[in-house]
Predict the structure.
Amino acid sequence: MVKKLLMGNEAFAHAALEAGVNVVAGYPGTPSSELVETVAKLHAAGAAQDVHVEWSTNEKAALEMLAGASYCGARVLFTCKQVGLNVASDALMSLNYVGTGGGCVLFVADDPGPISSQTEQDTRRFGSFAKVPVLDPATPEQGFAMMKAAFDLSERYHTPVIVRPTTRINHASTFFEVAEETHGRPLPEGGFQKDPKWVIFPKRAYEGHGEINRRLAQIAWDYAHDPAFAQFNEVFEGGGEGETIGVVQNGVEGAGASAPAVGIVAGGVSAAYAREALSLIEAQASRAGIPVPRYRFMAVGTPYPFPAETAAAFAEELTDVIVFEELDSVLEEEMLKLTGERHLPLRVHGKLTGEANDRGENTTENIAGRLGRFFDRTSASADSPREGGGTSTCSSNGSLGGTAHWAVPFAAQPAREEVPPPSRCSSETEHGASPDAGCGQAGSLAALVASIIGANNLGYDGPLPVRPPVLCAGCPHRGSFYAVKQALRGREAVLCGDIGCYTLGNAQPLDAVDTCLCMGAGITMAQGFAVAEPGKKQVAFVGDSTFFASAMTGIANAVYNGHDVTFAILDNATTAMTGSQPHPGTGVTLMGERRRPIVIEEVLHGLGVQHIGFANPHSLESSVAAARAAIDFEGPSAIIFRAPCIQLKKPDAPVTIDADTCTGCKKCITSIGCPGIGFDEGLRGPKSGTRGQAFVDTGLCDGCGLCTQVCPFDAIQGAVGFGGAAPVEPTIYAPNPDPFQTGPISGLTFSGEELECGGDAVEEGGAR
Amino acid sequence: MIDILLAGVGGQGTVLAAKVLAQAAQSKGWQVRTAETIGMAQRGGNVTSHVRMGSNGEAVYSPLITPGTADVVIALEPGEAARALPFLAPGGVLVTATTAIQPVTAALSSTPYRAGDVVAALANSLQAEASREQAAEVAIAPNAKANTQDAEAPGVEGYPVPLFVPVDDEALVREAGASSRKSLNMMLLAVAVAQGRVPLTVDELKDAVRARVKPQFVAMNLAAIDTAVANFG
């Protein structure tokens, strides 16, 4: 064993390898990508043996490939981000009915916030929809243990199992003890056993549904009683007079002088935030001499099927429970269901009552504030006659005035708080619980919390630059977007974007993305625009990795149905946004093999696209000409903008700005918005007067030379990247005479470029 | 518990700095957690790394630091220092580089972003807070973790007053050589350690650099640390 500092995703990879996983596959997506990369790295280093790892063309391909391997008895691991499961869902729904062979674990990373995603969908919900068990870690260490347990659970019941971490687990690091060398588990004798059960027919589906329902009931029992899983649903008590903080399992003993009346339920990383918040409240309350009520805490690490037995024991004798979880109100609804099923005299507080964030991330500070108010309110109502029925949360407070446990008026707090701003640096202190509002109220925990958080009196209220994510300096996408917009000048057009770095083409000044929906959607949406608004021109931008993942079917649709749209394929030889993963167009695999790449123009030709042009996006004039030719072509057409991602190449010499020529017109900035060019009001030159001048940030400039072609005064000097400015006559694809597409690749290619395929995002971290 | 927040702009190296701190904490036998910004937000965006060390044997639950409780905020860019200011504990240390990184939005905007204004405002804010705390006889808003703080630090009733350490990073880079710009993250770590509010020594920091940084860059980073300590020790 060796001790290593590992990011959550790296630790998950080690855990799966230690569990003897045989096949790992997925499609990149933040925050999930590093798991597959870690397996590939450990395999390349010889530490992970007897394992196959691959980036599949998309999530559906990955899961179906893994299903086959699982039928043979292999332990398999699928990885994706939350929206990736949408793509793989067709396979998952049926796979659950048919059942699995070797352990089949789906690692699906959710992204509350969202920080890098299109949706805030909750994979715990997906689990219950698909009737697939879900494990939900509160810390990376717990996730490590869950990954191993998930393989055992899968094999015990022949069910796929979802391990669902969230971004703060995926990207949090701590030290782990891991095996120095791992081996895939030997496959069972005989391999795949032919059996009618593997063929899904209606009758088989009916049988399978019964198997699913039976095993879900058994798994819920396991979650509550089998120590291998019950360990993930920790119950303990705290607060109050006594110091008895003991783990209570399977039937809560009424130990200690005072049994608690209030409870806290938390799932995922919210359990860590809630425990942190409780530590903070208890430490401060003890110093201030304010009592903290005795409480019971349940962390739910196995949300589906819900461990109702554990929850019932937890809820015994409680009057109020508050639930903290991110995304949907899954645990809260389960607690409500439990209350209804067992007729419990229990009030459940959470998202549905406006007492927890209804979306976005939770934080320690937000939970601390809400817990303070929850404790105040429940203490106050305990001192007064209980109001009749409902989930009253102390809406009338007048009668509670003189009590020792005075509640902060509920009316001062909006029923449903707005989502916190994306920056975590903004204060999330509670409305209506400012220090001033609370200080006069002796014994208020809400006021105490408000006095701790955000009480540093430090402030900066001046303007700060906003830093939206931007295309890198030298990014070839910048030239592609600019050229297409130039070629479209004077025409009404809709520009359909897609998922990848090039979504950033929406920002000013490029302003070249009118729509973005989901992977591959731009290709097909453009066709809908063409049908509905035939007078306009539609251009769909798609990246090379997205092309293979989900654009080809849409392109076939355009050719088949004769839609007059132009596909702008932004080929930068990598999956850039997620950290430079290889894909079918690179010819490189995670196992280190190299074979003839699948060539985008050959695919387009094979699908029947009649006009396929090429351009080097750094070469402005020829790019505009090539874009114009494709746009003017009647029927589906394509232009391939080809130049490598700057993360794959060495920077070229930065451009220079001639102080004698620069007029300070800002054209370079307002046309292409490259972060490598700034504007300094203090610079002076003969042509710029007192306006100031543009300057080059030589640390960022990649030397692509696009700006040299944009400056109307030739004030910027530098060579054009990726082979220089091309002749204006556009290059058109000439079909490869070999019908089986095995010959040399013609047209504009990456050959001769020394590209570094395969990301080292994990190693470099912040560099990307 | 020692909480250190690293703030900067994507590409400045907050992630590596967090790893080096985590390594140093691990070498002391402390539990440590770090959390970073990865993905879309880091492309020219503002990024933070949270480093949490259980320096008194406490359990560290959350991967993220709670606003108002960071013992040290290290900013690689002054605007990012201002953005991270709400995280600083009442008696915390703010170390910031003073050279601005201009985003494209600033070049497009009519209101320029001037680093000097931000640094001056930060200095005023921390000075005002320090004066307030020194003047106060009682009733200081208690630092959430004041009981674990180094009691020898100056201040009223054992609570240290906030400390502002602006670092002229251009001057440091001039002194340490042009290539040291890439070591700005390590230079600022060294400045923070040299302030004595973190129970780590410069030697422990250097050992962590040797353990975490690629071998070909170790010497460069160690030299940068020496330059920083010579100026801010």
